Amino acid sequence: MANIIITLLNNKRSRQTIDGLDSSVAMQAGGYSVIENEHNATVFEVHFPTEYHGQTGSVYMKNAKGEYATHNLGAITDTHSFSLPSSMTYAGNTLLVFEARKEVDGETTKTVWAPIVVPVTATSVDYKKVAMASPDILAEAIAVAADAAAGKFDGDSCFIRFAKDADGTEMSEIWSPDRTWVGFYIGKSASSDPSEYKWSLFVGECSPEDDDETTEIEYELVSNTDKTFKADGICSFKIIVPANVKHGFYCGVNIRTSAIECSVLQATNNSPYPLKYMERGYETTHFSKLPVKSVTLMSFFCDGIYLYCYISEAEIQ
Hints:
mainly beta, 24 strands, 44% strand, six-stranded mixed beta sheet, seven-stranded mixed beta sheet
């Protein structure tokens, strides 16, 4: 069985199952770590959307030393498996970019999926670490996607731009945290018309907010916001999921408390997506806090199928 099963989606993002545990990943660091130099220990299984079957598939890789590698998957079918070559298991982040190519009347058209970040560590495997990718990791992933798509390997055909919304507002070749949409254009040269690009929501910066006063919490989630509640004497905690949640929504909520009355999380889900709680890598029907002084961290992410709440706790003195 493959360690990591990658399902490539029509919106050019991906969904992963890691050692049998579901993980919604959108170019986020975390979720799995490969041990340095153990290139035969991790097997990837990739599934392309059915409309790309029969085209030619490839996966481009870049390790933390800046070295590149290409693995040709051949004609795309239901399932393709491969292992990381030894050169791609250098400690740091290895980036994977998947591509489908077809030729019609001598013209080559390429479809490129958003990069996947695979952490490579020297000491241990963290199977369900959930962490938002930092801007520098995202920028590196973007650069690799551009290299793979726009011709570093085998010719120019795909161009990537970044913008502030789905209309391509303030389109730029350079990514910045306020440009949360990524656009792809296939052609002989880059287009300057944003309407000719296919735009998808990308992961931007998560802004921090602190609350030192509220003790009876009723908080509605806000995308791209990491909210921390740390007042003394917190006695109730309720989460409200807004109705406008959509694919790509993500945020964080953190709470520091010792009150037993606040031991059960209450959540009202107004979104169109089922809410799943993931605790220590497994789905749970509800979440009960530790009845001691602790910090609870919750990461919410919508993959267009479910809204996930990833939960971790730490007891504090």
